[in-house]
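Crash report, auto-generated. Payload:
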Amino acid sequence: MFGSSTFAALAVSAIFASFATARPHQFHSRHARPSQGSPTIGGFAHPSGTGVPYPVSSSHISSNATANTNSSTTSKVRGVNLGGWLILEEWMYDDDSIFSGTDATDQWTFDSTPGAEAALHNHWDTYINETDFAWMAKAGFTHVRIPIGYWAYNNSNTPYITGADAILEKAIGWARQYGMWVMIDCHGSPGSQNGQMHSGHSGSVDWQTPDNLGLSIDVLNTIGSKYGAMKYADVVMGIEIVNEPSTNDGNDPEVTMTFAKNAYDTIKYVAANPDLYVITHDAWLGASKWSSLAQTLNSHTPSPRFALDLHLYQNQDTASKALDIHGHIAAACAWSQTEFLPPGSDLPIFVGEFAGTIDICANPNNSTDGGLSCTEESCQCTNIPMHSYVDSANTVATSLRDDLRRFWEAQVQTFEHSSMGWFVWSLKGPGLWSAENLVQFILQGDHLGTTKFPGICAQAGSPWE
Ligand SMILES: *[C@@H]1O[C@H](CO)[C@@H](O)[C@H](O)[C@H]1NC(C)=O
Ligand SMILES: *[C@@H]1O[C@H](CO)[C@@H](O)[C@H](O)[C@H]1NC(C)=O
Ligand SMILES: *[C@@H]1O[C@H](CO)[C@@H](O)[C@H](O)[C@H]1NC(C)=O
Ligand SMILES: *[C@@H]1O[C@H](CO)[C@@H](O)[C@H](O)[C@H]1NC(C)=O
Ligand SMILES: *[C@@H]1O[C@H](CO)[C@@H](O)[C@H](O)[C@H]1NC(C)=O
Ligand SMILES: *[C@@H]1O[C@H](CO)[C@@H](O)[C@H](O)[C@H]1NC(C)=O
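Recovered output after restart:
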């Protein structure tokens, strides 16, 4: 849906000197969401509190996770995706990446190249390690969402290389050690559920054949049997059954919903942990479309454990990309009315993906403008030499940094108000796609629980605060 040339995510990264020289990445549309038009604001009072609070008990915090004391003080998920790790996504890496010197464009083609197995093991061992878990916990992240491909559990009839399940296992150990929770995300389904590279295989959408749906369920059975066991109940909070299945391109939404029901039944049957969430991406259908199935699945249990994953981006569709900072903030705040369900709904919702990066840029007088892809050096709206007003990450135009922080806070305040919480995409990546860069350059090291702009949505005209 979005051509690679229109992808401007790197954009804001260019504010940082360290990124200014990076060659344009080969962007693929990461998240093809239909444009939604302008949100409307106002008139809808949204009392706080939707769904059940996520149980975070301090007893869960392991003894050497001392830095993570704040995770016991929020009942909301403050999470980060570990994207680009167990499923390769070329656009997320530096020039000198695992893909250089190959013609590969996705996991499928990469795994077919000579030497792929050794390179993959090296990537798994170095891209994210224990030090990252220590950093995440200290920064205030309470959860990680870990994308993994089905092929880690069954690669029959494909070039896919197995072995990622052992890395997932290691990651779960680190999460436990640092007092964090894990959502296991089956991000690549047999046949590809969306034909995009982040499913493992770009091209056609062949997920909904009987064989592929059957294999999907088989693999979820394996994952559910293993990670639904009580010995993981202190660390694995849920299993996501499918990521971003397309709606109108090879998939039938009715089949997607039937699959969700079957996957839920399968996992709940094999999982001993009664608190395990079974989560599905909404297939871009919107939360209300899932209410009826949720009512069916959640009515038998004391706390609802069938849950939805929404992905909310403002850097993908043309209308969002054109917004200025006020428009971005207003749209984020309006999500509380447009995307989530009323309080008391028995469908818990997680925001499994969103981003801190948008197309705004700084003028020489430090005002910011929207709608530019911001490819100029240092993210300027006009083509003046970068060093004339921004010379390093630390002196990024204050106006731009503050605007990006307002946008960040508008998003997370909205999510924490209206849902179970959030997972930013992603721990590492170009520019402000990277949670590491967001924390360092935009939050300037502040803990994720810190609010610099309280009431940002009230100021934007949203009545819910
Ligand atoms: C945390 O504790 C585990 C087990 O006691 C130990 O192996 C690990 O090195 C510790 N990590 C840190 C960062 O102290
Ligand atoms: C993790 O990787 C970083 C470099 O990317 C390195 O500095 C650090 O020592 C590694 N941590 C462990 C525990 O190996
Ligand atoms: C893997 O999937 C194939 C195709 O569905 C199936 O025939 C095979 O039995 C599966 N292997 C395992 C170990 O489950
Ligand atoms: C700042 O510069 C922009 C772009 O040149 C201009 O549109 C805006 O009016 C200026 N703002 C002020 C306060 O001068
Ligand atoms: C713009 O911001 C930079 C960095 O914060 C500052 O040094 C500079 O004086 C500002 N320029 C104007 C015109 O306010
Ligand atoms: C916990 O969060 C507060 C702000 O909400 C912050 O001031 C404090 O430093 C944080 N504590 C730790 C250990 O990160």
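Post-recovery validation: Residues 129-131 surround 2-acetamido-2-deoxy-beta-D-glucopyranose (ligand 2) (CB under 6 Å).
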